[in-house]
Amino acid sequence: MTKDLTKSSAHFLHSPTTRALGALIVVIVLGLIFNADGAFLKWGTHRDMLRAVSVYGILACGMTIVIIAGGIDLSVGSVLALTAVLFSLISIHWQWGAALAIVLCLIAGACCGALSGFFIGKFKVQAFIATLAMMVFARGVAKWLSGGQKVSTAVQQPDGSYEYGEIPEIFNFINAKILGGNIAVVTVILLGCILISWILLKKLRQGRYIYAIGGNEEAARLSGVPVKSMKILAFGMSGLFSAAAGICQASQEFQGDPEAGISYELSAIAMVVIGGTTLQGGRGSIWLTLIGILTIGYLEKILSINAVGEDKRLMLTGIIIIAAVLLQKNK
């Protein structure tokens, strides 16, 4: 019995969840120590952290599905920019309805992801190469649609002058805070994306297929798993979440910026890896990613309220990613 207890304790201490939670607790303790004259102890700080990290977290939801399937998606930042531009054009310049704008943007993002998945599944193109190509392509489409300019309420007229329109109500809604100003709508959207990812990965047969493909693609294929369609699904979901993030980004900035989302894919990958989902595929969960989102969010917030420069923040984030990967290798 003592051996069983020791074995269970060792398993608990070395589990991905324990390691991920340990990192989060360490970061929170640092926040309590370096609390910036009590700023870290105020709810407004935590609310703002959740709001700031929500767009990255939505991207991380899609990245989690792709990484569990044994892939990687470098195009999420560019698809975010494309859908942010498209959402702003439809809502501000063309003044179409909010529901239609959201649906069209989600379809556009899902199609971008599914196209990457099609090339990966059908033609065996490496995920790194296929999504790199989509990253460049989507960024180009965003610049083509916007003419290389930010799409804002300033609408250029035929005579060259500018006419300023009103911010669409959907922008104000997504950018608002609810429940007495205690939580941002974008944070609620993030929680919705986490729930959708959990249902897909844990409650649906397609989720089990995605785990099987990431664990051993050839074994999954021989077992009758539809590998090609599941890869299209995994990357399509990543594109769908990227579109949701693009809509949130446009609403928060009140404009569609074709340069938005540059290097966002690195933050999304960092959140997934720090949470404990392995880059080798086949293992991990959306809840681990949630821990990674909170770890990165709190780390950024603590450094921000203590006036630490961006250069040091980037260096520290890089060190933490390396540490997380090394911990994975020791499992």
Write up what this structure looks like.
Keywords: Cell membrane, Membrane, Transmembrane, Transmembrane helix. InterPro entries: ABC_transp_permease. It is a multi-pass membrane protein. Pfam families: BPD_transp_2. This protein is mainly alpha-helical and 331 residues long. It has one domain: Orthogonal Bundle (ABC transporter involved in vitamin B12 uptake, BtuC). It contains 14 helices and four strands. It has helices at residues 2-13, 16-33, 43-68, 76-93, 98-123, 127-146, 169-174, 185-203, 205-215, 217-222, 227-253, 264-275, 286-305, 310-329; strands at 154-156, 162-164, 177-178, 183-184. The strands form two sheets. The chain has a two-stranded antiparallel ribbon. Strands 3-4 form a two-stranded antiparallel ribbon. Strand 1 and strand 2 (162-164) form a beta hairpin. The longest helix is centred in the C-terminal third of the chain and has 27 residues, at 227-253.
What is the number of helical segments per DSSP (H or I, 4+ residues)? 14
| Global outline | globular
CATH architectural label: Orthogonal Bundle
Helix fraction bin? over 70%
Structural class: mainly alpha
Count of individual beta strands: 4
Q: How much beta, percentage-wise?
A: under 5%
User: Which topology does CATH recognise?
Assistant: ABC transporter involved in vitamin B12 uptake, BtuC
Largest sheet, spatial ordering of strands: 1-2
State the CATH class.
Answer: Mainly Alpha
Total of domains: 1
- In angstroms, what separates the terminal alpha carbons? 24 Å
Please summarize the sheet with the most strands: 2 strands, antiparallel
Low-confidence stretches: none
The arrangement of helices and strands along the chain is HHHHHHEEHEEHHHHHHH
Average per-residue pLDDT, rounded, comes to 89
Radius of gyration in whole Å, from Cα? Answer: 21 Å
Q: What oligomeric arrangement do these chains adopt? A: single chain
